[in-house]
Amino acid sequence: MIDVDAVTQRAIDVLKRNDRGGYTIPTDGLYPYQWNWDSAISALGIAEFDLDRAWQEIETLMSGQWDNGMVPQILFHTEAEGYFPGADVWNCDGPVPSSGISQPPVAVTAARLIWEKDTSLGKSRMEALLPKLRCWTDWFMRWRLDDKGAVFTRHPWEAGRDNAPDWDKSAARIDTSGVQSYIREDTKHVNSDHRPTQKDYDLYVWLLQLGRDVNWDDGAIAENTPFKVADPLMTFITLRAVRDLHALCEAFGQNTDQLAEYITVLEAGVDSIWNPEIQAYDSRDVQTGEFAGSLSCGSYLCWYAGVDRKEMRGQLRNALSRTKYPVASYDIQGAVFDPHRYWRGPTWPCVNLLIGIGLADFGVPEEPKLRRRIRELVAENGFSEYFDPITGTPAGGKSFSWTAAAWLRWARFDTHSD
Ligand code: GLC
Fold first, then answer.
1. Total structural domains in the chain?
2. Is residue 345 part of a domain?
3. Residue to substitute in 73, 162, 398 for testing ligand 1 pocket (most ligand atoms within 8 angstroms of CB)
4. Residue 120 and residue 74: Cα distance in Å, rounded?
5. 144-203: per-residue pLDDT in tens?
């Protein structure tokens, strides 16, 4: 029997311990700053016990927004030891020292869900946030939209799934031999077999240099970069963000014409990332048009974006029957599946939370079953960063904020037994 109250208290403790005053770090040591989509997901968890503090999480994140609308992947509010690449390596000049790329805009949706918990309390805070959230969305639509309407990423760190197999083919075409020398810090904190490889890291740093060399000018990067991959996770999370903004702007009596146009464009983009060969949403290299052939956790975010597809319902049933702890970051029957290496196989509760939100919106009958599996996984193995999808063995960093948030917002509720 799971002691739900005890696990819930531990989840709250994790979020409180990771609170650095106005923002929450993902975990101590490995990730000592504010990360963009981690904060958004953490805010959903925090809203379960402290609504005011949840708003603050999003507000602090938006305080790092650049003049061009971009909201950075990392905000280096303070100096911390043991992280590479730090603010000096990125060399950006936003209002808060930051990295030069963004991350999936979950914060827009989190703001709406937090506001919905108490619309009168959140009225003035939402009014102040709305123009900033719109501006960030405009930035995505201007700089991250491919000619088919899908959202692409320019850096694996921006996509949030650092070493996903989705980038393998595109990465293989890039010669990173000019990469500066650097010392990794991540493998000093956790097992290197559970982390991206050295080759992956070379690409991350090489792409960072490319942006830094042109002072993070989006137009110049767009002309020079060989790395542009349209990705289901980015496309679905952006489409959801735009739908939520549309609803919010309607509620606040603002004009929604442009947002309606964005939705039409992104819906066409969703069709362009359907790969009939694997019968799933898949990543597509923008320059070559080639699909990655990767059934990933990002593929299952279609419902979160308001898109239901019967083939994906079939994939979900398969995922539930093939492994004890789905949805894995990469198909457990896929060619390069690795149960321990980061985004190449492990199950991440944070993404499952988003998948669950989408499934619940559509009343997909498998949602309670998925929730129950993640519930057991976390209750039995703790708030680690990610888990072996077959055995449930925890891996990566411990006491992770967004895993605690996935418990608080979703996994702890049991309305089903299988
Ligand atoms: C890793 C993850 C990314 C996350 C960050 C902080 O880079 O791949 O998604 O935002 O860690 O937890």
1. 1
2. yes
3. 162
4. 31
5. 999 999 999 999 999 999 999 999 999 999 999 999 999 999 999 999 999 999 999 999
